[in-house]
Each structure stands twice: as C-alpha cells, then as structure tokens.
Amino acid sequence: MKLSQFKNQLIQLDKIAFELPDGNLVPSHFHVTEVGKVIKHFIDCGGKERLETVINFQLWEANDYDHRLHPEKLASIIDLSKEKLGLPDAEIEVEYQAGTIGKYGIDFNGKHFVLTNKLTNCLAPDSCGIPQEKPKLKISEIPAQNSCAPGSGCC
Fold first, then answer.
1. CA 50 distance to own-chain centroid
2. Which residue from 4, 5, 119, 151 has the highest number of Cβ atoms inside 10 Å of its Cβ?
3. What pLDDT does residue 103 have?
4. Contact status, residue 140 vs residue 57, Cβ threshold 8 Å
C-alpha cells in the first residue's frame, strides 16, 4: 500500500487498528515511533545496481495502557514527515517488535490495517540459473524407469 492510499483510508477511520498476519491485533495502546523514508542502494546477485525507497512506520507498544493514537494525530505526523523529509508516495513497510523486529507490508480490509508477510526473493533468477516457474510435465511423457506398469513384473 502506498502512503497516499494509507492516508486516504486513515482519515475515514474513528480509531486505528493493525492486524498481524496471524489474525491478532496489535495492542490498542501502540505508538507509531517513526515515520521515515528508507533508501536502500544495493547490488543484486546478478550484479545489477538497484535503488529502492520505502516509507517506514515503526509500531511500538509500552506499558502506557491509557495511550491511544487517533487517526487525525497520525495523519498530522504523516503530513509533518512529508514536509520535513520530502516523503514520496512510495510503498509502506511496517516494523513491529514480536520475537524480533519484523518487517511487514500493509493492506486494508475495510475495517483496519492488516500487516502482511514479506518474503525474500532472488532479484536476478536468470543470472543465478533459477527457473522462473516449475516445469510442467505430463506423467505420460516421463520415461518409464523402474515403473510398476502392467506386465512389468513389479507386482
């Protein structure tokens, strides 16, 4: 989800909730401790130089059980971050502390924001010899070796 999409959903809400990939909600007393721009400049495994920019939200919870972040407050933090940091309308990545710091994508289910699992991937599969998709084979075209076909004597 891009920053503009997030903010459009945010300003329509009465309260903010984030759902973890396992279906549990982040406790309602969470804080958004960071809104930032993360620029990643790297070389992929195929030797290609890449530059990625994401908007980072860091969610944190403490023993401040009376704290509730309201949509208008988070919208104002986003506006200030856009002004001060020059945030682009990029994809959002959410950091949240579970067993370790996890990085998530974000979606909206009509009621609250859903943290989605992110996966690693090879960015240059053609250079690494990784097939794009699993080859599809017809069983009838596979040569019979040690088969148990009728009349083969295996049964």
1. 19
2. 5
3. 94
4. no
